[in-house]
Structure formats: C-alpha cells, structure tokens
Description:
Layout: H1 13-17, E1 25-28, E2 31-34, H2 40-59, E3 65-68, E4 73-77, E5 80-83, E6 87-90, E7 101-102, E8 107-111, H3 117-130, E9 135-140, E10 145-150, E11 156-161, E12 165-167, E13 175-177, H4 178-185
Parallel strand pairs: 4-7, 8-9
Antiparallel strand pairs: 1-2, 3-6, 4-5, 6-8, 9-10, 10-11, 12-13
Amino acid sequence: xxxxxxxxxxxxxxxxxxxxxxxxxxxxxxxxxxxxxxxxxxxxxxxxxxxxxxxxxxxxxxxxxxxxxxxxxxxxxxxxxxxxxxxxxxxxxxxxxxxxxxxxxxxxxxxxxxxxxxxxxxxxxxxxxxxxxxxxxxxxxxxxxxxxxxxxxxxxxxxxxxxxxxxxxxxxxxxxxxxxxxxxxxx
Length: 187
C-alpha cells in the first residue's frame, strides 16, 4: 500500500501578509508557490511594455494605473488566490488599498519563463478568465509570440508574431509595437 503523502498547508491572507518582503510567491487555492526571479530578457520586455502602457495612460490623462510585479492581486479570499502578474492595468481605484489590488485588474500581461510556461498558458489563463480580468496577454519570448485573450463578450484568442503591432482591446487606440520589443532580444 502506498504511503500517504503529506498535504500542503492551506494559508490565509493573514499568513500570506507575514511573509518576508524578499519572498516572491503566489497562492492558488490556498497553497503557496514560490516564484523564481525573472531573467534579464524578461525584465527588458517588462520594462518596455510598462513604458508603453504608462506613456499611453499619461498622454490620454487616463484614470487607470499600470503596475509591474511584484504587486499583489487578491483574486479570491476563500480559498485564497493571490497572484503577482508581470504587468497589469487597474481602472477601478476602489480595488486599490495602498498595498495590493483586491479583485481582478482590467488588463494583465504575463511574460513566459522557460521553466513555468504552463503556469501562464493554463493555470493563470483559467484564473484570470474566471475572476473577471477583461484582457490577458501571454508574451512568449522563446516562441516569439503574443497570445491575446480578450474575455469580454465572446472570448477572442489571437496570436501575433513579435514583428506585429498588437492592439490593447480595453482601449480604443492603443497598439504596442512588438518590433521594438523583438529588437531587445537581438541586442
């Protein structure tokens, strides 16, 4: 007869809040998962995307705010689900409490790391779609693809190569030029 496997400890938001600041972790269904530090390419892409989002919002005098990881998003309290998307845009300021976002951001971008691609393509896609995120991009520097998941109305999924200008669907006139971002990979 096989030995019983120990069950992971289910944590609460109060326990999560006691983690040291230098610990990067996410929580799915109450189970804590440690996160690895992002690579240089990951950081370069994240920076360029954050610039594009922030610049657009400022030029439009928009009320939304763009944030980069690490910044906690509590998607669910019971069981606890806390994520740290690579990038996000939050338009409802009532979701912000000075420490985190409580509820789904409007727009999330995850940049795929080689060791955890299934997290972005499967697990996070499921959680983001089912907890009210309006639009979710998966930026994959290894495959040179951007997968756009737009959840409002009928779900739309479109893939773009790294030489395309990709429309941010939550805005009428924002396109992000991935030619510029693709050049980062070759510099």
